[in-house]
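Researcher: Go.
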Amino acid sequence: MHGGAGYIAAERRAAHAEGCARAAEVGAAILRAGGSAVDAVEAAVRALEDDPLFNAGTGACLNEDGVIELDAAIMEGATLRAGGVAAMPPFKNPIAIARAAMEDGRHVLYAAHGAARFAMSKGFARATVDELRTDHAYDRWRALKDGQATEKGYAGGTVGAVARDAQGHVAAATSTGGMMDKAAGRVGDTPLLGAGTWADDDHGAASTTGHGEAFIRTAFAVRVVEGLAHATDLEAHLAADLSRMRARTGSCGGVILVDCKGSAAWARNTETMSWAVVRMDGAGESRESGA
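Model: Structure:
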């Protein structure tokens, strides 16, 4: 799991790490019961969409008009099926709508009012901005509008999950409200396959967080996953790719990854990134989290 790279205030970091740990356990419970990687990542991301600490679902950032527009994607590595929504009006769990798009199979990506129309056709109820907006998100947006803050590209809160199941399949899911005070209609890397979300059983799965435009411009997620074919140290591989992205674009972020053998790794070149991992092997289970 990741809960976003960027800057998280010191007094909020422990809560972010704990939120990631709870969500990772939601996904791990599905895997422990023999469930699929795609079910696990969807459930884990839904848990963080419901947690108002994070910039996804409840607690999402507000755009320049004070409106919530949501991005999400999910992908499974066996057949490369995927679904996504972009610049979607408020719905409680955008990752579930992305999953519905994947299962429906007609299209991969729905945007804006078309995404809302698709969601309602599948039985999802629209939410209001007031239902998803938190005081924390509003106060940050208001501070920007009043000229009391300059951190327009704050990215600490996008959520994502990657997993490998007992059948050897991998999956990735990512969900976000995007950048605070973003332009109306802006779409980041999260719902774009190969940029912010990617899964392929041949190599692994990745979910990114940070300055979305840079991840789009470098096709980061697919490049970092395919690069596993030649990587010997997973964390060094991720760190090197983040460094290359920064050198080419001047932007920062973070990434989580699981390879086709089930090894997990993460890296960031931002001040903070909340994360959690649950590992299961012949020796038992282990858990870690941090921010």
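Model: DSSP finds nine helices and twelve strands in the chain.
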